[in-house]
């Protein structure tokens, strides 16, 4: 193999954007100098976390749509039906929205290459840290705690990779997975084959279990919200369990989070959003307020504190989301909620204010800024001029929603209602508990659009509303295996506000559950350089 994975290990403090090592593979670095003691391990792990919001160094173009975890999640949301990109704008993320990224798998500047390289570099760095554990000196509790974080970060990376590059687990266990590496890779390392989907999930579960064991043994509190800990790792475990359809495991993992965290659910008042405004005449704006741009939010479990004095991240999640500024990315291509999903939100629900209503400004008549039907205001800059806004990776509301689904799937309806009520009651004070109590059943009766008939329908609907823009809708669509659509007609004659139903396959107004266009292709560079992956191992491609 020519070059499998280069290690780009950031080893300065989390608040820094500088790198001590930028281009050296691990064979060219004296590990004993970099990871000489427990404190050095902490610094190295912090370097990995810093890449999770500021990762654009290995692509030579299109870098402004490559900013770590949130870039991958946003692309996955745009592949679904609940988020609408109203125009191509500068071009960022429109290829994801139109299912055109996978055809660019031969280039090193598009989604296939970025997602693959990004997560494998995290994996490589985690392997590098873990390889030092047997010999590193210092406080054993600290060593165990950092190792636990590295195992959790590796599990998270493999989970995101397998969801991005292959169909969901259930029913596809023996399909090709992604290569698994648990040792440091160096120049000359022979690349591994794809194995199976089940192999990857076995590794993910092993890493999660090892991580949780080490967290327990270390008995250390988390030093910073950017760090993975036992609660965020248990939420990761619950996410994986949903894909596995292991409802009992999901239930237990969620209860472990609830019993172990000091986070608390956002109240209705705390969840309120003040919409930003934009004057189309003089291009002036006033930034609004939202709880979804700060790690000081009460329900945060894991997130990245973006410190603008060290790193000005113009190319960021908020550049692509907040249209009420003069940053042209979002202003030229606003991200909107689907009009069907918006209509499912009660007028007394505080979440109705996270988006514009149908305010009479369709996409055909707007020119710039946030003044468009169904535009989002959930994600706004904390300070646009300083490019300041934290990234939220996990919050407690998701735990209760997963718990509700897991309980409902096991026909534990009373407990399931209690769990989802924790979210609903904090968003809509006029929603009657008796209405929720009237629902039962663990069958999903509709995919994208329909009428809530069962308790499971309601839980999944609440998930789509509450977690809009946070977890990557296409991943849910794939695991639920019901298919999806981007076209509908609403009462009163309004039709879907999607700008692309999928012109490439116009007959697919109803996408099949195993639709391959949302599965990324293996980057060509991996096929060229890895003797154990060839053209026959590539994901199916339709041109």
Task: Summarize this structure briefly.
The protein has helices at 31-34, 38-51, 69-78, 94-97, 111-131, 140-165, 197-218, 230-244, 247-260, 317-321, 328-332, 339-343, 396-409, 413-424, 433-437, 455-466, 473-480, 524-529, and strands at residues 83-85, 277-279, 284-286, 300-304, 335-337, 391-395, 484-485, 510-511. The protein is mainly α and 543 residues long.
Provide key terms for this protein.
two-stranded antiparallel sheet; 18 helices; 37% helix; mainly alpha; 543 residues; disordered N terminus; globular
Compute the average pLDDT: 90
Order of helices and strands: HHHEHHHHHHEEEHHEHEHHHHHEEH
Unreliable spans are 1-29
Q: What is the general shape?
A: globular
Q: What structural category do the secondary elements indicate? A: mainly alpha
Strand content: under 5%
- State the share of residues found in helices, binned by percent: 25-40%
């Amino acid at each position: 193999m020519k070059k499998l994975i280069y290690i780009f290990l950031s080893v300065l403090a989390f608040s820094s954007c500088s790198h001590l090592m930028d281009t050296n593979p691990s064979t060219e670095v004296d590990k004993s100098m970099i990871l000489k003691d427990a404190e050095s391990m902490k610094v190295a792990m912090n370097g990995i976390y810093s890449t999770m919001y500021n990762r654009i160094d290995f692509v030579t173009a299109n870098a402004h749509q490559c900013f770590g975890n949130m870039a991958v999640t946003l692309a996955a949301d745009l592949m679904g039906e609940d988020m609408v990109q109203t125009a191509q704008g500068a071009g960022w993320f429109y290829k994801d929205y139109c299912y055109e990224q996978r055809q660019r798998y031969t280039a090193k500047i598009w989604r296939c290459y970025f997602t693959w390289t990004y997560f494998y570099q995290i994996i490589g760095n985690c392997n590098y840290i873990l390889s030092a554990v047997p010999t590193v000196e210092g406080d054993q509790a600290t060593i165990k705690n950092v190792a636990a974080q590295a195992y959790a970060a590796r599990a998270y990376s493999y989970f995101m990779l397998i969801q991005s590059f292959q169909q969901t687990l259930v029913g596809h266990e023996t399909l090709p997975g992604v290569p698994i590496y648990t040792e440091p890779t160096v120049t000359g390392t022979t690349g591994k084959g794809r194995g199976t989907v089940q192999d990857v999930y076995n590794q993910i579960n092993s890493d999660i279990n090892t991580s949780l064991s080490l967290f327990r043994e270390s008995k250390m509190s988390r030093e910073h919200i950017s760090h993975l800990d036992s609660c965020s790792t248990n939420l990761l475990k619950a996410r994986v369990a949903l894909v596995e359809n292991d409802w009992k495991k999901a239930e237990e993992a969620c209860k472990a989070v609830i019993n172990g965290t000091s986070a608390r659910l956002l109240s209705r008042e705390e969840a309120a959003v003040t919409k930003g405004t934009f004057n189309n005449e003089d291009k002036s704006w006033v930034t609004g307020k939202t709880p979804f741009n700060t790690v000081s939010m009460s329900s945060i479990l894991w997130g990245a504190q973006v410190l603008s004095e060290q790193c000005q991240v113009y190319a960021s999640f908020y550049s692509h989301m907040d249209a009420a500024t003069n940053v042209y990315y979002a202003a030229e291509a606003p991200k909107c909620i689907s009009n069907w999903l918006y209509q499912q939100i009660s007028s007394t629900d505080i979440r109705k204010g996270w988006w514009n209503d149908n305010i009479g400004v369709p996409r055909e008549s707007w020119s710039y800024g946030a003044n468009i039907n169904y535009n989002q205001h959930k994600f706004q800059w904390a300070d646009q001029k300083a490019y300041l806004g934290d990234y939220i990776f996990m919050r407690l509301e998701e735990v209760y929603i997963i718990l509700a689904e897991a309980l409902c799937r096991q026909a534990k309806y009373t407990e399931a209602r209690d769990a989802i009520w924790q979210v609903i009651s904090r968003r809509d004070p006029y929603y009657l508990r008796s209405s929720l109590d009237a629902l039962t059943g663990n069958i999903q009766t509709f995919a994208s659009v329909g009428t809530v008939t069962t308790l499971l329908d309601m839980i999944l609907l609440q998930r789509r509303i509450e977690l809009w823009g946070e977890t990557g809708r296409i991943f849910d669509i794939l695991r639920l295996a019901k298919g999806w659509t981007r076209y509908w007609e609403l009462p009163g004659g309004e039709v879907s506000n999607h700008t692309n139903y999928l012109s490439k396959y116009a007959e697919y107004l109803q996408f099949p559950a195993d639709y391959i266009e949302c599965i990324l292709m293996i980057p060509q560079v991996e096929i060229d350089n890895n003797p154990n992956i060839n053209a026959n191992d590539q994901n199916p491609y339709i041109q």
